[in-house]
Structure to design on (107 residues):
């Protein structure tokens, strides 16, 4: 799944959708009939993105069963993009020794 900033609808890549949800021939027929929207034709390095909201109900349910709820993915992805790993902090805190504390109560 792809998160595109400023767009509220989730998008699936062609590789995620076609071999797992429907066949290539079925995809072509749905695209010709207007049952789904794709971002481009593909080829020459371009990645085909398929809009989740444009799918039929059965295909939407198949996507949810296979990959989980795309709306939850869209809600969490901006937060994941903001997260940065600080390697210096990781090295610093991993080298620290914890004090040995006894959990037994003295009487």
């Amino acid at each position: 799944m792809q998160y595109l900033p400023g767009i509220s609808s989730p998008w699936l890549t062609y590789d995620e959708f076609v071999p797992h949800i429907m066949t290539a021939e079925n995809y072509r027929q749905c695209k010709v009939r207007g049952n789904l929207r794709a971002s481009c034709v593909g080829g020459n390095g371009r990645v085909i993105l398929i809009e989740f909201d444009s799918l039929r109900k059965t295909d939407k349910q198949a996507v949810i069963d296979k990959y989980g709820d795309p709306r939850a993915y869209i809600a969490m992805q901006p937060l994941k993009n903001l997260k940065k790993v600080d390697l210096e902090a990781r090295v610093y805190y991993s080298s620290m020794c914890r004090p040995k504390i006894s959990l037994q109560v003295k009487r």
Q: What stands out?
A: DSSP finds five helices and two strands in the chain. The chain has a mean pLDDT of 82.
